[in-house]
């Protein structure tokens, strides 16, 4: 009974199924089980402290100091036990947290080892020299393909016309035609233009404009009348 209450395991207790000793998971389960027992014990002691305090108050109200002191002593013992349990729980929490982290590190390390082994297997099937040889062979085959494509592009007509040569011939012909036209235009006789009448050299006689003189005279007469 006391073993179950304080979390002690009997020597005849069989190991739990699915839990193998020496493994992190089994240790975690064991620590968590002990932590649950401490929490249960903590609940019992907390209730005992409350009960003993209530009894001490009742005895003290009845002037029974002796019984009240006994209750207070039991309350003090329960409180001391609660302090110890709090320390034990803190230690178990620390161990659980540390073991969980270590278990995670172990899983990560195991995954890295598996990845390393797989990389070794892959590298055995593929090395740098083999890759270089493969690339050289691939480039060689590509050169063959390009050579075949270039051969298929060749015209079937045996008389291949050089386009640059044709353009040079056309330019030469155009230059010859331009020179011929320039020579013909230079050697053609000039057309005879009709003779223009001569310009008289003597001064033309001046004829007074009588109408203008009469208008000026009329204007001057009008001004004189206005001023008089």
Automatic annotation (TrEMBL):
Compartments it resides in: Endosome
Keywords: Endosome
Region annotation Disordered: where it falls in the sequence: 1-27, 193-217
Biological process (GO), any one: vesicle budding from membrane
Classification of source organism: Eukaryota, Discoba, Euglenozoa, Kinetoplastea, Metakinetoplastina
InterPro entries the record matches: Snf7_fam (IPR005024)
Highest taxon of source: Eukaryota
Family: Belongs to the SNF7 family.
Protein name: Snf7, putative
